[in-house]
Design goal:
about 375 residues, six-stranded antiparallel β-barrel, four-stranded antiparallel β-sheet, 4 helices, 22 strands, elongated, disordered N terminus
């Protein structure tokens, strides 16, 4: 079939019009995303906190264990039946407080007996003294033989020795009577009692209980030999403060000072035994606990600190987001140091005056426009 020129022209015009329409639609399609993109780059509100400059303490941290300053096993020195207990298991007792009482009647009777014997011997001593004095005067006048005088003088000296022996016997009886009372040698806490009323106590060394001193208490830890020089240098300047934390509760902190450094380094571990004496007035710490030990060896001036919540981690290391001069988020690779509460020291990567982004961290990235707002409690 042949087409006329007019028909062909109409066909060309229709194709051209269709092509123009496609071009216009394509142009319109490219313009719509541009409007949406403009809406997406609107500045995002973010909480910020300034970099803080201050002097901070420098610590060495260790894991240590607590030890009692004094521990004693209460034992018997005399035989007898246990009459009563003066304190319950686990009780906090004062120095000199009665803990156990062995039946004292046998020892009271023995004391009375030796005292009576001492009185008898004292009477004999009086007679020997008078007799010796009388014979001495008569011997001077020739009325008493020298041998008789010597005999009465010997009797007098023997009676003196007997009185001395009686005094020692009385002292021994008093000591044994005193041993029937087991009293606390120092203030501390009792453990579980091993004997009860009515038990026959053997003088061979029956154990009653264990008493430990809780205030103060030792915290023992092991610094490495590389840290020893810094510790000794700080210690030479005076008291070296030590803080102890028994759990993750920051409120449970106890203070004291370094009180002992061993005189030899363990060659197998490269560490040395150190001990701090810690105040424990409420008896919260008990011997054998694992504790966090923090030794304050120096102060670092002009340290830069940022909130810990601002730190992120990536393939290049730890980083923070900073509000740049153009109002966009910048990423800074940082070297974090010690922590102090909610803040952490940044050794390099930030400067004083930088505004650190502490919230909406999952929603921002490098180059995103941000609107800084003061940080509030709970921002994350």
């Amino acid at each position: 079939m042949r087409l006329s020129a007019t028909t062909a022209g109409f066909t060309v015009s229709a194709v051209t019009a269709a092509a123009i329409g496609v071009v216009l639609l394509g142009a319109a399609g490219h313009e719509a995303p541009s409007a949406g993109a403009t809406a997406q780059v609107a500045a995002m509100p973010v909480p910020v906190a300034p970099v803080v400059r201050r002097t901070v303490p420098v610590y060495l941290d260790y894991i240590g264990t607590t030890e009692a300053v004094r521990t004693v096993t209460l034992q018997a020195q005399v035989t007898g039946y246990l009459a009563k207990r003066g304190a319950s298991d686990g009780a906090d007792v004062k120095q000199g407080e009665l803990l156990y009482q062995i039946d004292p009647r046998d020892y009271q009777a023995a004391l009375s007996q030796v005292k009576a014997q001492a009185q008898h011997d004292a009477a004999a001593h009086d007679y020997a003294r008078v007799s010796q004095h009388r014979n001495s005067m008569l011997s001077n006048d020739g009325w008493v033989a020298k041998d008789t005088l010597d005999q009465t003088t010997s009797n007098f000296h023997q009676s003196e020795a007997t009185l001395a022996a009686d005094a020692a016997a009385i002292q021994t009886a008093e000591l044994k009577l005193g041993y029937t009372e087991i009293r606390a040698p120092f203030a501390g806490r009792l453990g579980k009692s091993l004997v009860h009323e009515g038990t026959l106590i053997n003088a061979a060394g029956t154990q009653f209980n264990t008493l430990v001193e809780l205030d103060p208490i030792y915290a023992t830890f092991n610094p490495s030999e590389t840290e020893l020089a810094a510790i000794m240098r700080s210690r030479s300047k005076g008291r070296l403060p030590v803080d102890v934390q028994a759990s993750d509760d920051a409120q449970q902190r106890f203070s004291g000072a370094l009180s002992f450094l061993d005189n030899v380094v363990d060659r197998s571990t490269g560490t040395i035994i150190a001990r701090a004496t810690i105040s424990n007035p409420d008896h919260t710490l008990l011997p054998g606990q694992f504790v966090h030990v923090r030794v304050h060896i120096a102060d670092q001036p002009d340290a830069l600190l940022v909130p810990q919540v601002a730190l992120g981690s990536g393939q290049l290391g730890r980083f923070v987001y900073v509000v740049g001069k153009d109002g966009k988020a910048e990423q800074r690779i940082v070297s974090p140091g010690a922590t102090y509460g909610s803040l952490i020291v940044i050794d390099k990567g930030v400067n004083e005056g930088d505004r650190i982004i502490v919230g909406n961290l999952q929603k921002i990235s490098v180059g995103v426009p941000v609107q800084p707002e003061p940080a509030k409690d709970g921002d994350a």
